[in-house]
Design brief:
The structure is a homodimer. In chain A, helix 1 links the parallel strand 1 and strand 2. Chain A has two domains: 137 residues, 3-Layer(aba) Sandwich (Rossmann fold); 136 residues, NAD(P)-binding Rossmann-like Domain (Rossmann fold), CATH 3.40.50. In chain A, helix 5 packs across helix 6 and helix 9 runs antiparallel to helix 10. A six-stranded mixed beta sheet of chain A has the order 2-1-3-5-6-4, with helices on both faces. A six-stranded parallel beta sheet of chain A has the order 9-8-7-10-11-12, with helices on both faces. Chain A is of the alpha/beta class. The two termini of chain A are 22 Å apart. The mean pLDDT of chain A is 94. Chain A is built from eleven helices and twelve strands. Helices cover 38% and strands 19% of the residues of chain A. Chains A and B meet through strand 1, helix 1, strand 2 and helix 2 of A and strand 1, helix 1, strand 2 and helix 2 of B.
Chain lengths: 287, 287
């Protein structure tokens, strides 16, 4: 990678930051396809997000920003326009400068998650799903599930108000989906359990759900990537159940991300490189 | 270069930006010595410099900022502490976060320039020097010349007030140096002529000095790096006179820069790699 004065710079903003994987993924693709661009990490506290986005987008060197925990919901307030998915979830994980200078936001977690479930041959049209978390990622995932015909979603978040608010939003957008905030994270009876919370990022985090209460047909999707296998997935695998980390969800949204950031050809090329990218992410997580 | 979430990010801020060479130099060194850091370019307009520095230094991912045209003078107002060189020149080309959180500024153009003159075996202790420009770089170079015993410096800038102000500052700090703002950029009689102005960055810029009026013993130091040889150096070489572009001045200040940014071992290693670094900069300027 040869960074010069004219290199376009993309940012991956999160807090904490060590766990983000987008820079590695994007830089591998930029490098492999000879694109003069780079993505760098930037740890930003929530209270500095607004001023940071203003400063970054005042610079013509900055091509766009990817957002991760905990900024997705708050970043949606910094944009002037948002895609359909982003509007429903009130969250964005990508921001670019529009042609007229207005900031545009998009949310690719939903499409990444949905594509990943397809790849895993999980048919959501008859499933009861438990989603842990009610932040930006959970919003995107719940909307993607509802949009693709999932009949029943239970949302659990320690902040009950947040979960109820999210349920109301999804219900309004997708009236055919039964979605409700639940009092407990008990996974009994759910075939698909999704951890869309940060639980597992810190070593002393409790498990998002009690693994011994999962049914034998349960599938656990933990959207975290750092520290694989997470304590949750380790217990899931120990019980002989199926589980998936967040790598594929990131890979499956990389094409839409690149397209949004102005690299449509690169976006098309990525489709054929999924296996390599998954290897890259899994390998570097182990070292 | 493997950029991860925990990579420390350094910035090179300028406007325009395409000509900056620090990212290439620093990234080569970071990569070669296995340092988990990267430097990226950032084009920032003067009116956004303050808010950009505030936003960057609010992020723990940001290790430091290198500043180039036109920000060196203005950036000195954003720091809470400055080195001796930076205080005299009222300019900084490097900013880091101090241990107590206060921003610290330093100016390495002077030391880079002085070391480069030594390498070229130009003894300034008996020279009359003409400096074109009165901005941040010119301040640093004039102070470095005065500090190292140069007896007579003429400063020319189209903004006469700026040149007079700089002359006053240098005179106050180095009373033994005869330094004065001059009305003309006529190089007649000067053995060392230094272009420390941006003239030459744009294709339609006039030459900083009339080359046909240079003496046969004249040496022209043009601190620009982009578009080598610059129109100035091309004419100088055509006349068979000696001239030097800004590469060496950048290379000679890289050690102090790295030390300031918290990489003392890397700073020591650089001393043995000057020839390679010069080749790198010269080569990539030609391609």
């Amino acid at each position: 990678m040869n960074i010069t004065g004219s290199t376009r710079v993309f940012y991956c903003i999160a807090d904490p930051i060590a766990q983000v994987r987008a820079p590695e993924l994007f830089n591998t693709l930029f490098h492999r396809h000879g694109v003069n661009a780079v993505m760098v990490p930037m740890q930003v506290k929530a209270e500095h997000l607004g001023e940071t986005l203003r400063a970054l987008f005042a610079s013509p060197s900055v091509g766009g920003v990817a957002l991760s925990i905990p900024h997705k919901a708050m970043a949606s307030r910094a944009v002037g326009r948002a895609t359909h998915d982003a509007s429903i979830a009130n969250a964005v994980n990508a921001i670019r400068r529009g042609e007229d200078g207005v900031l545009e936001g998009a949310l690719f977690d939903g499409v990444g998650f949905a594509r990943s479930l397809e790849r895993l041959e999980i048919n959501i049209s008859s499933l009861q799903v438990l989603v842990i978390g009610a932040g930006g990622a959970a919003s995107a995932l719940a909307a993607a599930l509802a949009d693709r015909g999932c009949p029943h979603i239970a949302l659990f978040d320690p902040d009950r108000f947040k979960a109820e608010q999210l349920a109301r939003i999804i219900r309004a957008a997708y009236p055919t989906c039964m979605i409700e905030a639940v009092h407990s994270n008990d996974p009994t009876g759910f075939v698909l359990v999704v951890n869309a919370s940060p639980l597992g990022l810190r070593p002393d985090d409790p498990l998002p759900v009690a693994v011994d209460r999962l049914g034998t047909d349960a599938f656990v999707y933990d959207i975290l990537m750092k520290g694989q296998p997470t304590p949750l997935l380790r217990e899931v695998h120990q019980r002989g159940l199926r589980g998936e980390p967040g790598f594929d969800m990131l890979i499956q949204q990389t094409g839409p991300y690149l397209d949004f950031f102005g690299f449509p050809e690169l976006a098309r090329a990525v489709a054929g490189e999924e296996a390599e990218l998954r290897q890259l992410l899994e390998h570097s997580e182990r070292v």
